Each structure stands twice: as structure tokens, then as C-alpha cells.
Amino acid sequence: MQLPTIQRNNYALRPWHPDDAGSLVKHANNPSIARNLRDGFPYPYTLPEAKKWLDMVGKNRDDLILAIEVNGEAAGGIGLHGLKDVYRYNAEVGYWLSEAFWGMGIITDAVGVMVEHAFTQTRWLRLFATIYEHNHPSMRVLEKNGFKKEAIHKKTVMKEGKLLDEHLFALLKEHWI
Ligand SMILES: CC(C)(COP(=O)(O)OP(=O)(O)OC[C@H]1O[C@@H](n2cnc3c(N)ncnc32)[C@H](O)[C@@H]1OP(=O)(O)O)[C@@H](O)C(=O)NCCC(=O)NCCS
To answer: How many domains is the chain partitioned into structurally?
Structure first.
């Protein structure tokens, strides 16, 4: 699934390229990012990991996986991952950004762009995200885009040796303005 490059005020959304590996390592190699994501996003984030991930993204035709470019470098990522079978009208939203650019409103804006794309250009009717209990900035990003907290899954995540609650946020197309 593709989307043309979208240039915003202080960042751009664009496809990933194989030559993003260096900037991916530079910006993704951070335990403060990895602790909020699934274990497939490792710490340390090495060059071989980056190349393997970029290769996988290059072959993926089902999901919408974009780089967030800031100051000419791939400094983050955002994606919509479609579910299958009876869940095929759902897509999971995921994102991360280089710590150097946190608090500038970039992810709030990028989630808004992806929501609009999902609800105007795809079949998806429900978008959702699951957030670990300590990740208040990410919950705020979703709330600012109209997502509602639907559930707290108690002690379902094992991360850094601790069991964590996970907060499920969702947005229905029929509630999207
Ligand atoms: C979560 C993350 C994506 C946010 O990106 P960002 O571009 O910095 O987010 P924004 O600047 O758009 O918005 C962050 C909001 O959280 C708020 N915030 C920051 N720290 C906060 C805290 N401790 N408690 C509550 N809100 C907080 C900000 O004030 C802002 O809200 P506001 O505009 O109402 O003031 C980024 O911190 C990140 O990459 N974290 C690591 C990976 C991650 O958590 N990914 C999501 C997994 S679900």
C-alpha cells in the first residue's frame, strides 16, 4: 500500500528507502523508544537490524509503513497494519519518533494524516492502538486525534522484566470528524 510523499510544516511522510539504514540506527537506537514498543523494535538497534527491517518493509504490500523525515533524515516511523479474517476492517496504528524531536507536535499531526488517509482511501472502519501503562504522551497523541480508551488489559505485557497493563484506544470511522 502506498501514499505519495506528504510535506508538512516541520516534517514529511514518505516511503522508506534501503539507504535510510544509517539514519534509522541513529534515531532508533534509544532505550527510551524501545521500552514503549514490541520486542521486534530492539535495543540496541544495530545496522544489521535496520537493513533487515528495511528489506522487510520493501517487500510488504499489505500495510502502510512510512518514514517520518525531519531535517532530511528518516527520524521516525508510522504505520497502519491491517488485520485479517473477521477483523479485516480494523487496522493497528503504530509510531515512534527520534527523541530529539519529541514534544513538537509531529506525531499528533502524523496520526491525523494517517487517520484521514485510512478513513477516506481504504476499507478500514476502525483504527486502534495499544499503549503501555506508563506512556502518557502516546495516550495524549491518540486522544488529541479523537481516539477513545476502550479497555485496560491488566498485566498483559512483559517488558523489561515487568508485567504491565496495556491501554486499548480506538477510533471508529463513524465517530471521525
Ligand atoms: C509517544 C511519541 C510518539 C510522541 O511523539 P511526539 O511527536 O513527541 O508527540 P506530540 O508532540 O505530538 O504530543 C505529545 C503530547 O504528550 C504530552 N506529554 C508529554 N509528556 C507527557 C506526560 N509525561 N504526561 C502526559 N502528557 C505528556 C505533550 O504535552 C503533548 O500533548 P499536548 O500537545 O496536549 O501538550 C514519542 O514520544 C515517541 O516516539 N515515544 C517512544 C515510542 C512510542 O512510545 N511509540 C508509541 C507506542 S504506543
So the answer is: 1
Question: 23: Cβ below 6 Å to ligand 1?
Answer: no
User: Does residue 71 contact residue 101 with C-beta atoms inside 8 Å?
Assistant: no
Whichever domain contains 42, its CATH number is 3.40.630.30
Query: Looking at ligand 1, which residue's alpha carbon is closest to its atom 20?
Result: 137
Q: Is residue 168 in some structural domain?
A: no
∠129-89-58 over CA atoms, to 5°? 70
pLDDT, tens digit, 9 for 90 and up, residues 22-31: 999 999 999 9
- Chain segment 42-72, per-residue pLDDT in tens: 999 999 999 999 999 999 988 999 999 999 9
The arithmetic mean of pLDDT across residues 137-158, rounded, is 98
CB of 128 within 8 A of CB of 145? no
Q: Does residue 96 have its Cβ closer than 6 Å to ligand 1? A: yes
Q: Determine whether the shortest distance from the Cβ of 104 to ligand 1 is under 6 A.
A: yes
Domain containing 92: what range?
6-129
